[in-house]
Design brief:
alpha/beta; eight-stranded mixed β-sheet; 10 helices
């Protein structure tokens, strides 16, 4: 699920009208091999009503969305999943652990309403956003209907919110019909009939990796499943927090301190789950080998030669906003990306 933090807070801005949520949290049963943590699911589902609150626990994270788009655009500039040389909005996105939809909704706004509209730097054609929390998906759908453009994409099927897990998407058992789907729209397609899960050009997981449940899964297994959802040539793009002393002080001690110092609820982070860039890179190298050959569990360097890897730190400067700062990865927050080569 999405996470919160001092430098990478998670859930943001309130509209004047917030959707009414069921008084009890609706939590789907987690599968035996699911990466979903029941404790994390309960924690973030409880924040549903404040997810879009501009003065709530997610206010800093909402400022990060422009930087997410900027980082994605930088990846596409280095190598587009599309074989066409002319920039066109043809890319299919999957947002894993979308939470209340801060990034997913902002990306959906960039999807052209018609073929005559100039594409944005992220070249998005469709967006599928998934989260295991029923309350968050319900709230995200309701909030998205406030924007006519986003609502139009929900109705056409270009934008979908699915209450499901990554594991179900990979297995082809994820539900695909949304409340906003119109009969015959592409969002009504049954992915359970698709034996090839590699259908996305871009897979994103922002502030998700540090919330994997170690009792039921591992970051390696989770990232390997993300890579399985990618088409050859596609990018897996994410952000997380380094497990260092500066990140502990910033993202846990200060960020979770009582108001007015703290910016996220206590219990949002668990420092031991933070991951360093070299760990992410190593898991991705192993994951690429497993995707290439499910029988490979350890391989030589030849298996990952030419791997396209990007990593850059993200720093929040009060009064200025988020900035990418090369070399600041160990301070706390950072973006990372890997390309699944053709």
């Amino acid at each position: 699920m999405a996470s919160l933090r001092l430098t990478l807070p998670r859930h943001a801005l309130r509209q004047t009208c917030l959707p009414t949520l069921h008084p009890t949290l609706s939590l789907p049963q987690t599968r035996k091999h699911s990466s979903v943590s029941a404790d994390e699911l309960t924690h973030f589902s409880a924040l549903a009503s404040s997810w879009w609150d501009p003065m709530g626990p997610s206010r800093i994270l909402h400022l990060m969305n422009p930087l997410r788009h900027e980082f994605i655009a930088s990846c596409l500039a280095e190598g587009s999943p599309s074989p066409t040389t002319e920039p066109r909005a043809t890319l299919n996105y999957l947002d894993v652990g979308c939470g209340g939809g801060i990034f997913a909704e902002s990306l959906a706004r960039t999807i052209p309403l018609n073929t005559n509209t100039a594409p944005t730097p992220t070249l998005a054609a469709t967006m599928t956003a998934i989260d295991p929390s029923t309350d968050l998906i319900r709230m995200a759908r309701s909030h998205a209907r406030n924007d006519p453009t986003v609502d139009a994409h929900l109705r056409s099927g270009k934008f979908r919110y699915l209450n499901t897990t990554l594991e179900d998407v990979i297995a082809g058992t994820a539900p695909t019909t949304t409340e906003s789907s119109s009969p015959g729209s592409s969002s009504s397609q049954d992915l359970s009939q698709n034996s090839n899960p590699a259908q996305y050009d871009i897979v994103t997981l922002f502030e998700v990796l540090e919330h994997i449940d170690p009792k039921t899964s591992t970051p390696l297994t989770f990232l390997t499943n993300c890579l399985k959802a990618l088409k050859p040539g596609g990018w897996l793009i994410g952000s997380t927090i380094s497990r260092t002393l500066p990140s502990f002080l910033l993202n846990q001690v200060i960020a979770e301190a009582p108001w007015p110092i703290g910016v996220v609820p206590r219990g949002t982070h668990e420092w031991s789950k933070f991951v360093n860039p070299d760990e992410v890179k190593g898991w991705l190298q192993e994951g690429l080998m497993r995707v290439a050959d499910s029988g490979v569990y350890r391989g030589g360097r030849a298996e990952v030669e030419g791997m396209r890897w990007k990593c850059v730190g993200a720093v929040y400067v009060p009064g200025i906003g988020w900035k990418m700062v090369k070399g600041s990865e160990d301070w706390g927050n950072y973006f990372w990306a890997v390309r699944r080569e053709f």
